């Protein structure tokens, strides 16, 4: 009974009752440009997404380290700005339209859906890493002894400096570690799990899953979950971007120009994260599939939009609710990924900004990220 009431309430909420306009914005102009947008955005999206992956795989197009550095943090800023400016704001505008009436105009539903999405994503990641932690502990003999520290993320031996895990009586073992300690004197191991240490070590993907790499499994799964979640949110957003461009009216030209840069920058942010993840040999095609999925999503959505250009009412009740709800969910995904996975993990828990000259490098990365955020936020004036 309760399920029937809930289903009827949802159906009533999205039913077109004539209170919102059912007219399409399509005006029949710029047909050639609309067709060209399929191929132009296909190329720019593919360029932004595939370039970081190609440059990380093949030496003949390998870019200088500083170029990859800029692309990485510029893309992080783009993702954060996309969540706030290009997703959450349009979602709030759509879900607060007066013609929707009822709870939609009485409560900030866009922010509510975004909040639910964010917490659901965090809970899912918690459960994922708890599961991974249990599997790691079952598959390896960590030699735990009573009195050692424990955490939600497993044995502290995985991520604590070895000289902190021994007592003062272990002089012999400390001596054996002296040579390796000297070699790594500039590397600071933070007392955080490998999951938070995304950029600290980049292991050979070929040995992923072997006893040699047992300590980096959580790091690997952390990167994998983060990239998959980011892909999901970006692809969802790209569907509505493509349809909106296809059925746009007088604002088509400005929207077309802006979306070319929008999709390229967003693809750059996604591509750099795909390229920097550790992919084992059995998943060697996964980065290419993910990049291809993003590249094709918007052009296919544009083609679908052109097919329904005269019958799709973007300001109808159903369209407003669908766009607003899905944009809100995608906003929560991108905000969580951008603020936690990209900003906090890279700047606070990463070993990349430790040691000599770290302050200069960190400020440069922060400046590049602000540049990406600012440019993507500026594009929000037109799209």
TrEMBL record:
The domain of life for this entry's organism is Eukaryota
Localization recorded for this chain is: Membrane
Write the signal peptide boundaries.
Answer: none
For this UniProt entry, what is the primary localization, expressed as one broad class? membrane
| Keyword set, alphabetical order | Ion transport, Membrane, Transmembrane, Transmembrane helix, Transport
Q: Name one Pfam family in it.
A: Zip
Mind telling me what this protein is named? Zinc-regulated transporter 2
The organism encoding this protein is [Candida] railenensis
Upper taxonomic lineage: Eukaryota, Fungi, Dikarya, Ascomycota, Saccharomycotina
